[in-house]
Design goal:
Helix content: 10-25%
CATH superfamily: START domain
Low-confidence stretches: none
Number of domains: 1
CATH topology: Alpha-D-Glucose-1,6-Bisphosphate, Chain A, domain 4
Largest sheet: 6 strands, antiparallel
Structural class: alpha+beta
Mean pLDDT: 92
Radius of gyration: 14 Å
Length: about 110
């Protein structure tokens, strides 16, 4: 999700406890600014569903991410839904672009 393979940034710290009720923290430096992303895992149904909260700490506004994976004949289909707080409405295009970059990098990594 982060790092120089996705965008011009440096990963400073990653910590996660991938279980329901567990949390994560990703700290990156981008354009000279430290940006921390934190959240909690709400639902984990391996291998088909992941639901977690998402907060960029500098903004303190939370959202919810739902990832659903459906198997197919030659792979799978991933659907990502980002439930945004209304105050993020003007940044929908930027957020969609960021998720597209991350999911494209995932597709390349998985071949």
């Amino acid at each position: 999700m982060f790092g120089p393979a996705i965008r011009d940034e440096e990963i400073v710290h990653l910590a996660l406890t991938p279980k329901v009720g567990g949390s994560f923290s990703f700290l990156v430096t981008r354009n000279g600014e430290d940006i921390e992303h934190v959240g909690k895992y709400l639902e984990i149904v391996r291998p088909s569903r992941l639901v977690f909260t998402w907060i960029v700490t500098k903004d303190s506004i939370g959202s919810r991410i739902l990832v659903d994976i459906v198997p197919g004949e030659t792979g799978c289909e991933l659907t990502l839904t980002h439930e945004l707080h209304p105050s993020w409405a003007e940044q929908v295009g930027q957020i969609e672009g960021a998720w597209s970059k991350m999911l494209n990098a995932l597709a390349v990594a998985l071949g």
